[in-house]
């Protein structure tokens, strides 16, 4: 292996390699376009086992010849033989299906053949970001050259593969452009960045937006911002376009891959089956958002439980054909796109909406036929024209309107969503745990956060368990919500109580009381608020007498030093924050996240059992 590595480093030239067995440039399947990531099974299932599933797909990321610095593993000979048989048959029945093996640039298994200097070390030790793998030092030029050489030889050197999917990699300035130059500059290259990036269009055919739709629903990503980035990838990436949006049922939102690795296959199978039909709303929201552009959609058990499940739903068979034009934003904030075979609507706003249509349609997801449909927040509909009789009676009424008629109110919207809001326009969305999923002003998410992000070494997230039913005290002047439970990571526990007080003048106070029930080794304990650049760029921020203009474009990362009092002023609002923990302001666009992050870090390192911590944030929001 070392000799092979050394040989691959002799030349840094980019060479072309054998072409395709067919021409993917002509690929243009009808809609919906369904894909899968990581679990297609082309390398370990027979044709008879997988043909019904594979023949329906338009894009396969991984699940065939997927490499983590283990190219010399003897299993690949058998795997490649099976892949070759399956792909030959697949392309006979489904010539539009693009197949892209994945290459993990950032992690590798415990492979003694890798040079020791390639491992990324912390305190002199290798560290792992995923069960069974260790981080690679990708800052080394020889590491990137090695990945390019092996991708050229092992993937683009085989005509049965259409391109490559670089897992956990962004649009860098070396590996991606050099890969794009393969196959006479027509190589299909895709990758998986944390969020859909805003660069790389000239060298990439697409990106995987992994669970970013879930982060929209959880209030961590603005829908309009996400949709704008996705539509840009649909318009500007290399052809053929190969962007995929994948999301998962919310029942799996807190699944831990480390805990999942310890489960038996039978235990995982039970959880996967429970998840399959648990969240039709998330399925519809992800699919209809995807249909606003020209990408592919995938839906599975999620990154923590299982990617690439062989799930299929009636919505995937909707005979939409091809779009009549680009998606359009409606006056009510919904988006729609007309297709030859029907109409697609998606509601990425924070409220349920009633849509009146000029003709009669049938809802693919249910029995309703008519001209008026209620589309809940974070949901969508695929509607097909019909002459069937209209359904008797109105559709369900909207659960929550944009404006409140009471000075303060508290409403349970569903089993895991509690709303507190003021007549003055400030609105909070809480999960049962107390996690803030949305902070809205007159229906628009002016900031996110408020809930702590806590991770054990090396980067294992604490999640809320055993949450108690929130206690609500309501008066004409304020609403007080008290949440409680435990934050759990493996066998370590942190008990907590959160008290949220919302006053009628748009003043919010969040008080947290934590106690370490076990010895902890904290990698990250962050209390934060995030402000979307889309709304706040060009505004002002002040702290400790220092005033800055929030930059329109990325420049300096550190914007304001840590302070206990800070004010953000934008065209929408003035937001004054007081915190018991000093908070510093940074520009997160450096890490491909379009927001300004205001964060403080009260604890890290070894924390003995019995340690207590209190944190208080007060936020005054004044509309402008």
What would you note in describing this structure?
It is a single chain. This protein is an alpha+beta fold and 624 residues long. Strand 36 and strand 37 form a beta hairpin. The chain starts with a helix and ends with a strand. Mean pLDDT is 92; it is low at 1-19.
Label this structure with key terms.
single chain; 624 residues; alpha+beta; Immunoglobulin-like; Beta-galactosidase, Chain A, domain 5; 20-stranded antiparallel beta sheet; six-stranded parallel beta sheet; 39 strands; 18% helix; 36% strand; disordered N terminus
Summarize the structure.
By secondary structure, the protein is α+β, with helices and mostly antiparallel strands.
Number of strands: 39
Uncertain stretches of 5 or more adjacent residues:
1-19
**How much helix is in the residues?**
10-25%
Strand content: 35-45%
Number of helices: 12
Radius of gyration: 25 Å
Q: Roughly how many Å apart are the termini?
A: 64 Å
Main sheet, how many strands, which sense, barrel?
20 strands, antiparallel
Mean pLDDT: 92
Apparent shape: globular
| CATH topology-level fold name of one domain | Beta-galactosidase, Chain A, domain 5
- Quickly give the structural class: alpha+beta
Quaternary organisation:
single chain
CATH architecture of one domain: Distorted Sandwich
CATH secondary-structure class of one domain: Mainly Beta
